[in-house]
User: Fold TIR domain-containing protein from Pseudaquabacterium pictum.
Amino acid sequence: MVRRLAEELAWCGIDVWLDEWELQAGESLHDVLAQAATKANFLGVIVGANFDDSPWANDELKIGLSREKAEKRHVVIPIVVGRQPLPAFLQGRVYIDLRRDRYIGIARLIGLLLKLPQQTVTDAILEYRPKRFSDLHGILRYCGLSPTIALNKEVVDSILQAGGRKTSEGCVEFFPEEIIIHPSASPHLRKLMSRLITVLHDEQASAA
Assistant:
């Protein structure tokens, strides 16, 4: 659940920190999580069935709430994914609800992370009524943004080796159909390109 959400955000251009993507062998999980929670612009707290029993989630929440007091701004973004009773800290706090209309919730989350005008995001949601991932790219375009993908350095280097090119803006341009058949493309990179091709086809079908 968490990995899927992180991937969907990354495929909408959000630079996401996820422990299983970032942790190296031998590193302290507690120390690395604390450092990431301290540096991130926002801290997404997944509120699921086991939230109250998770020391990691509660530690991250404490760091986030402490930062809110110190920085005098919203840092913690609660993301509700389960049917369990809501924890006490959510009382009086707006949260992202993924329990019913998942992609509407993700669209609102993207709007928060990118600091988009709330009314513009609401208008985009009413226009697209998002039901699948490709609809999120349509919402980004409605809000005046060109959809990009946030990838880690290893994947970017692999794409460049397989024929991608850097732009003057520091992005990487590529054609997934060419990358997927390149001899240097790893199985992981081919799987990533295959998923991207599926998303692009879905977008084209929606626009037709």
The chain has two domains: 2-142, 153-207. The beta strands are 43-47, 76-80, 96-97, 165-166, 172-173.
